[in-house]
Design a protein that fits this description.
The structure holds two protein chains of two kinds.
Chain A: H1 3-6, H2 11-28, H3 35-60, E1 65-68, E2 83-86, H4 88-108, H5 117-135, H6 139-157, H7 163-194, H8 199-208, H9 213-229, H10 238-245, H11 248-274, H12 278-304, H13 309-329, H14 333-364, H15 380-394, H16 399-414, H17 420-444, H18 469-489, H19 491-505, H20 527-540, H21 547-567, H22 572-593
Antiparallel strand pairs in A: 1-2
Helix pairs in contact in A: 2-3, 2-5, 3-4, 3-5, 4-5, 4-11, 4-14, 4-18, 4-19, 5-6, 6-7, 6-11, 7-8, 7-9, 7-10, 8-11, 9-11, 9-22, 10-11, 10-13, 11-13, 11-14, 12-13, 12-17, 12-22, 13-14, 13-16, 13-17, 14-15, 14-16, 14-18, 14-19, 15-17, 15-20, 16-18, 17-20, 18-19
Chain B: H1 9-43, H2 53-66, H3 71-79, H4 81-106, H5 127-149, H6 158-185, H7 187-210, H8 234-258
Classes of the chains: A mainly alpha, B mainly alpha.
GO cellular component, one term (chain A): plasma membrane
Subcellular location (chain A): Cell membrane; Membrane
Protein name (chain A): NADH-quinone oxidoreductase subunit E
């Protein structure tokens, strides 16, 4: 082994280029390589990529290192080439992505029989582009990987090729392409001022001219693009449409890691490039936190109103990523670390839930909560897993999701924001309640009367997996085992790592230092889960609620529900208008903050 | 998403009302965005201003350190070669995705009659056209190769050259008709060309590492300025791009043409 490969700073490019090479070779052998062999090779590659990244995160430790491609190191202080940054934030995120892809590809065996090797090629490119994005230390290079990720996502969404799936894939493509276009304009503006694309170089210019309108506009445009990928209100409209139609292993990847990639991009931009601008810090603290709160609340309400299980899970993703966005907006190391941990915890649980949805599609032949009432009793183990995941989603005080929430909450309270617990609890209670309701109705035959979810859009689709129920459940249980490992066995290690990753990403700056605050009372953490159970049991026992009480409640809430349903009507023109409104909102905050 | 009856008069009135609201909202938002963009536009560098330190530096680096005269190639294949690696695989990703989406609808069966469109006669191309295309196709292909190889000296490169080579394939199709073209070429060949070409680029970076240099560093002799074989390993990565682009475009051509294939009774149009 050559000493060049032993340098951990060189590992990121080895991971990315290795995955790319393998994708090329697999495509070349599309007709020769049998599917089983490409399954094995792809699984091994994603697992090795994730494992290498995990070892890298350990070995690089407190000394993040830049690796200049082609040996083009900066000349007289000016960046010439492109660098990859090996730090714990990027390496940790890559390790997590490797885990998600390994499990999703394992679960997907049998789903994509018709696509043969092409599915593997796309998945390898999907993972490689995410790794490249996590390691990139250059605005345009980051954009290249971001675009590749989008292209792979578009193709995988439309795979089923039925007319609703093409609608969903088109909405996804159009909105994300507009987002990518905004990012490109933002990069152009940053280059116009800084004459460089390297993060550190642009940051140095921002330090010299912190009030420059070009840099602020660049941040607004780039952030809008990344928030579109992260599916934050009001840029989120593509997510439910795409999730509802994408094959479930692909949905697991979308919710598990792809939306988090958008948030990771926002955090990188904030901390590594634009943090010296006071207007940007104001924008992040006020604008992003309001968008995060809006997403957390609206996503949760929408999730409760759905009957199409994958749409429901998609809205719950909007809600939980909104909570994580608040963590980024807190502008402190602890908040950012909590946000990263929360995203990881959410990704694990959400991937499990999407795989359960996939099992429902393939074994029960549907995904409609009301239509499948009681149909799930023969596969009750899936129901138990789903119920447990619902409780975790609601925020029971175990596991990475809750640990991240507590870190964000501690940061918020030390900046004087005491309401964050309420937002997190609200998001958890409603989304957890919605999933619990599905569990009760589908797997335990409860809830003969339906309520507001009756009016939600639905679709009779099905997926065929050529594998028995038990074989599909194994990857699900494996992912749950990982959750137990990080949530219970290595809980404090995971927390420390998230903090260390946040320290790397913030370049050791801290705009709102934390103070040690006592955690809240022991009863309160269980409250969201209790409320979730209350919501689910109220929804499932509607036939026992006196008509007068129920009618009054339904009458009061119906106009709001109707309006929310009407906004999410799948009309692409309206979605684009909402994007414009979001852009105007962010720009307005930036202008007022000047 | 739900099917709604839009024929009734009330429905039409609702749609019209909604459309006017949307137009108003668009106008208001567009005005707001222009207002917000105003200070940004005022702060832009003057048109034609020349504070382009980076460009000047690259202009100095290209001839001096890489012995080449086309700076765009210096940026694409060396200084910012990683971006090109990403772009190349993005193309591969797009072509693969397109193939999946198109094949998903019609399967891969090649036995059925290709190149048929219902209601349109399938004439044999006239001899004059065939002669012209048979003469032009090899010339076009040589021109594509020239564009690709000469990238270190004059504008060109693997992307442009690859597209020109793929258009030579289109000329062969014009001359021979689709069925003959498909039999002569075959999609497997282009898959291999595309995948291996792209992999060649990535492997070229690893080769540099194997020789103890950074990823994608130059490891071949640089040659002399203004000679075709200058620029070191830029030639190899450029060749990889050429193969990948030509293979990718050819695959897309085949897949689009296959859309015209008449379906067999057994084929399921909806996958």
């Amino acid at each position: 082994m050559n000493s060049v490969f032993a340098d951990p700073a060189a590992w990121p490019i080895c991971i990315v280029a290795g995955l790319l090479t393998l994708a090329g070779v697999l495509l070349a052998g599309a007709k020769i390589v049998p599917t089983l062999l490409s399954d094995i090779v792809t699984l091994a590659a994603t697992a090795i990529a994730g494992g290498m990244a995990a070892v890298l995160a350990m070995r690089i430790g407190d000394h993040p290192a830049l690796y200049w491609m082609g040996g083009w190191t900066p000349r007289q202080g000016q960046a010439i080439g492109i660098a990859f940054l090996a730090d714990r934030a990027g390496a940790g995120a890559t390790a997590f992505a490797g885990l998600m892809f390994t499990v999703a590809i394992w679960f997907a065996r049998g789903h994509f029989a018709g696509a043969r090797n092409h599915f593997h090629v796309l998945m390898l490119l999907f993972l490689a582009s995410q790794c490249g994005f996590f390691f990139a230390h250059d605005l345009f290079d980051m954009f290249v990987w971001f675009e590749m990720m989008s292209v792979a996502g578009f193709a995988l969404t439309g795979y089923a090729l039925r007319s609703p799936s093409l609608d969903g894939a088109l909405n996804f493509t159009i909105l994300n392409t507009i987002g990518a276009y905004l990012i490109l304009m933002g990069i152009a503006l940053a280059y116009a001022r800084a004459n460089a694309l390297d993060f550190s170089a642009v940051r140095a210019i921002a330090q010299g001219q912190p009030d420059d309108p070009l840099l602020i506009a660049a941040f607004v445009l780039i952030t809008t693009g990344f928030l579109t990928k992260a599916a934050q209100v009001p840029f989120h409209f593509w997510l439910p449409d795409a999730h509802a139609v994408a094959p479930s292993p692909v949905s697991a990847i979308f919710s598990g890691i792809m939306v988090s990639v958008g948030l990771f991009g926002v955090a990188r931009m904030v901390w590594e490039v634009f943090a010296p601008c006071p207007v940007v810090r104001h924008l992040v603290h006020v604008g992003l936190m309001s968008l995060g709160c809006g997403s957390a609340v609206m996503g949760a309400v929408m999730a409760l109103m759905q009957r199409h299980v994958k749409r429901m899970l998609a809205f719950s993703t909007v809600s939980h990523v909104g909570v994580a966005l608040i963590g980024v907006g807190l502008l402190g190391q602890q908040g950012l670390g909590g946000s990263l941990l929360y995203l990881a915890g959410h990704g694990l649980i959400k991937a499990v839930l999407f795989m359960i949805a996939g099992i429902m599609l393939s074994t029960l032949g549907g995904i409609d909560e009301i239509g499948l009432r009681g149909a799930g009793r023969p596969i009750w183990p899936a129901g138990i897993v789903m119920g447990a995941c619902a409780l975790v989603l609601a925020g029971i005080p175990i596991g990475p999701l809750d640990a991240g929430a507590q870190m964000m909450d501690a940061q918020a309270r030390s900046s004087g924001l005491h309401g964050l617990t309420l937002v997190i609890g609200f998001a958890g209670a409603l989304t957890g309640g919605a999933v619990l309701r599905v569990t009760g109705r589908v797997f335990f035959n409860l809830g003969p009367t339906s309520g507001e979810e009756d009016a939600a859009p639905t679709d009779d689709e099905r997926e065929h997996a050529n594998r028995p129920f038990a074989a599909q459940l194994v990857p699900v249980l494996a992912l749950l085992a990982v959750w137990v490992l990080f949530g219970i066995v290595f809980a404090s290690g995971a927390e420390d790592f998230a903090l260390a990753a946040a320290r790397d990403m913030t370049l050791d700056a801290d705009f709102f230092p934390r103070r040690g605050l006592p955690h809240v009372t022991p009863v309160l953490p269980w409250l969201p889960a209790l409320i979730a159970m209350a919501i689910a049991s109220a929804d499932l026992n509607r036939h026992h609620i006196p008509d007068a009480v129920y009618g009054a409640f339904a009458g009061a809430s119906r106009p709001a529900f109707r309006m929310l349903q009407a906004i999410h009507d799948g009309v692409i023109g309206e979605y684009v208008l909402w994007m414009m409104a979001g852009l105007v909102f962010l720009a307005g905050i930036a202008i007022l903050g000047c | 998403m739900n099917a709604v009856d839009v024929s009734s008069r009330e429905a039409q009135a609702t749609i019209a009302r909604r459309a006017s609201v949307l137009r108003g909202a668009f106008a208001a938002l567009a005005v707001a965005l222009v207002v917000a963009a105003w200070p940004v536009m005022r702060a832009m560098p003057q048109f034609g201003a020349h504070p382009l330190i980076y460009g000047d530096r690259v202009n100095a680096i290209g001839p001096a350190e890489r012995h080449i005269t086309n700076m765009v190639s210096a940026i694409n294949f060396d200084i910012r070669g990683l971006d090109t690696l990403g772009e190349e695989f993005m193309l591969l990703c797009t072509v693969t995705g397109g193939t999946i989406l198109l094949r998903g609808g019609r399967g891969e069966d090649r036995r059925a009659q290709p190149g048929c469109v219902r209601g349109r006669a399938n004439h044999r191309p006239p001899d004059s056209l065939r002669l012209l295309c048979r003469m032009l196709a090899p010339l076009t292909m040589v021109f594509g190769l020239y564009l690709a190889i000469n990238a270190v000296l004059t504008p060109g490169g693997g992307f442009q050259g690859g597209v020109v080579i793929a258009s030579a394939l289109l000329l062969i199709y014009l001359a021979e008709g689709y069925a003959g073209w498909r039999d002569a070429l075959g999609g497997e060949f282009f898959d291999a060309m595309e995948g291996l070409g792209a992999a060649l680029y990535a492997l070229c970076g690893f080769a540099a590492m194997g020789l103890g240099r950074p990823y994608l560093a130059v490891f071949l002799p640089l040659g002399s300025l203004k000679s075709t074989f200058s620029g070191g390993s830029m030639l190899i990565v450029n060749l990889g791009v050429t193969l990948a682009v030509a293979g990718g475009f050819a695959t897309l051509l085949i897949e689009f043409m296959e859309e015209t294939r008449a379906l067999n009774p057994g084929d399921d149009a909806d996958g």
